[in-house]
């Protein structure tokens, strides 16, 4: 009996099911792999490029809601959109089957399965794939290459380490500190941790601490009672209470003053908040994720960041690499952004020339992925022909000179307003110091917080 040229992955937390599936299916298809850990799905998809995934719906002990199965169905279809997913469960019903099909599953199998029925479903899925019903072989290879992982795009070794760390820590409630330069995707990492956690069905609350003033900090984070201050016209829960049951993401935590750091530490230690104007503690249940582009360890040595707060928030650290350290991902990212802006600006024939791609790959990208995104959008808007040329991109040299050609776009047309000059100086300092906020702020003679606000103001 000839086997179908089909690659099948079976995912189930019961070893008996995996063994039975492997013994049955290897008689009919060329490749059968099994795993009891759904967190390994992204790596296995990348390595083998499976045609079909048989996916169990429940993995936690005693779970019957199928929430985990729908979560992993979504992940598989994001990572490899053309993969055929067949869901399996011992707790099936008509409503569940209908929902599974609506969310992208091809079929639904009840356990214990009937061997003949399962083989028939599997053969049909494999034959549809080989006939091109779902995608061509070339498209399959393209999808494998442009590896997506919960909002990230990249196949570099540096990003693989990030993916592995997220997979390991996501299922826990450990506090996570995400470090990285501006534009490296710190919020994307935080949302990936949340989407893979047991709290995925609950709230993800983001607080940008760089944008919260000291006077409003307690009211914003801890809440207030009616009459606590002039504008407190009603009781209001703070962001910490709002995040209870889910994930709290504190972005740019390095911007907090020492006084505010002490107040935040007290809340994180006690897991209770007291609203302004009251003395009643309110318990909170949060998964804490923090992020910053600042050198917190240097700040601890300088006495500008509390060591005890650092140890409270950095149970696990994730360091996001700058784009210049993952150059093999630049083409994938450029293709992704180009696809978006072709559609947005109705320019379907725009493409990157070979020399342009070489220049993009060689550039040092001080603004990282955000800068690449903006550069592609601008080039698509302004280019004259259908092939994007190197001259369609403004790529700042590593050391900005004093000639007009080296100045940012804001000054190219002799724009000498104070705002344009400020933007130029901030950009120049950032480029000179390779995105190091501490060194750039020192050269400009301003605080890190002030520099961060100017970066946000000018979209750098």
From TrEMBL:
Response regulatory domain: residues covered: 7-126
Pfam families listed in its UniProt record: AAA_lid_14 (PF25601), HTH_8 (PF02954), Response_reg (PF00072), Sigma54_activat (PF00158)
CDD domains reported in the protein's UniProt record: AAA (cd00009)
Residue ranges of every copy of the Sigma-54 factor interaction domain listed in the record: 152-381
Sites bearing 4-aspartylphosphate, chain numbering: 56
GO biological process: phosphorelay signal transduction system; regulation of DNA-templated transcription
Keywords of the record: ATP-binding, DNA-binding, Nucleotide-binding, Phosphoprotein, Transcription, Transcription regulation
Gene Ontology molecular function, alphabetical: ATP binding; sequence-specific DNA binding
Protein name as it appears in the record: Sigma-54-dependent Fis family transcriptional regulator
Organism: Pontibacter oryzae
């Amino acid at each position: 009996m000839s086997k179908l040229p089909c690659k099948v992955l079976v995912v189930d937390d019961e070893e008996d099911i995996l063994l039975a599936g492997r013994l049955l299916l290897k008689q009919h298809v060329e490749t059968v792999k099994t795993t009891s850990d759904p967190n390994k799905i992204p790596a296995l998809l990348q390595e083998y490029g499976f045609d079909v995934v048989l996916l169990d719906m429940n993995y936690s002990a005693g779970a019957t809601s199928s929430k985990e199965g729908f979560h992993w169905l979504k992940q598989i279809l994001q990572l490899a959109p053309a993969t055929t997913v067949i869901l399996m469960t011992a707790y099936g019903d008509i409503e569940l089957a209908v929902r599974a099909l609506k969310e992208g599953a091809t079929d639904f199998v009840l356990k214990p399965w009937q061997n003949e029925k399962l083989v028939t479903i599997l053969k049909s899925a494999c034959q549809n794939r080989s006939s091109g019903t779902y995608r061509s072989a070339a498209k399959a290879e393209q999808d494998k290459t442009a590896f997506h992982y919960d909002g990230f795009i990249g196949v570099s070794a540096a990003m693989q380490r990030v993916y592995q760390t997220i997979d390991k820590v996501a299922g826990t409630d450990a506090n996570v500190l995400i470090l990285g330069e501006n534009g490296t995707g710190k919020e994307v990492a935080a949302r990936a941790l949340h989407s893979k956690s047991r709290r995925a069905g609950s709230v993800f609350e983001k607080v940008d601490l760089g944008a919260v003033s000291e006077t409003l900090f307690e009211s914003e984070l801890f809440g207030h009672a009616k009459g606590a201050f002039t504008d407190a016209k009603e009781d209001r829960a703070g962001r910490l209470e709002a995040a209870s049951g889910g994930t709290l993401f504190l972005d740019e935590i390095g911007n907090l003053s020492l006084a505010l750091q002490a107040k935040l530490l007290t809340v994180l230690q006690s897991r209770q908040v007291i609203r302004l104007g009251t003395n009643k503690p309110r318990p909170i249940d949060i998964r804490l994720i923090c992020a910053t582009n600042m050198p917190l360890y240097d700040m601890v040595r300088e006495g500008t960041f509390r060591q005890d707060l650092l140890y409270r928030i950095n149970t696990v650290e994730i360091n996001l690499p700058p784009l210049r350290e993952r150059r093999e991902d630049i083409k994938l990212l450029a293709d992704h952004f180009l696809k978006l802006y072709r559609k947005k600006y109705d320019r379907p024939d725009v493409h990157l020339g070979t020399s342009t791609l070489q220049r993009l790959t060689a550039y040092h990208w001080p603004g990282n992925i955000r800068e690449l995104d903006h550069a592609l959008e601008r080039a698509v808007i302004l280019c004259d022909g259908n092939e994007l040329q190197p001259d369609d991109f403004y790529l700042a040299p590593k050391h900005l000179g004093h000639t007009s050609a080296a100045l940012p776009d804001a000054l190219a047309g002799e724009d000498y307003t104070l705002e344009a000059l400020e933007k130029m100086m901030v950009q120049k300092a950032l480029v000179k110091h390779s995105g190091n906020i501490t060194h750039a702020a020192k050269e400009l003679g301003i605080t890190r917080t002030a520099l961060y606000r100017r970066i946000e103001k000018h979209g750098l």
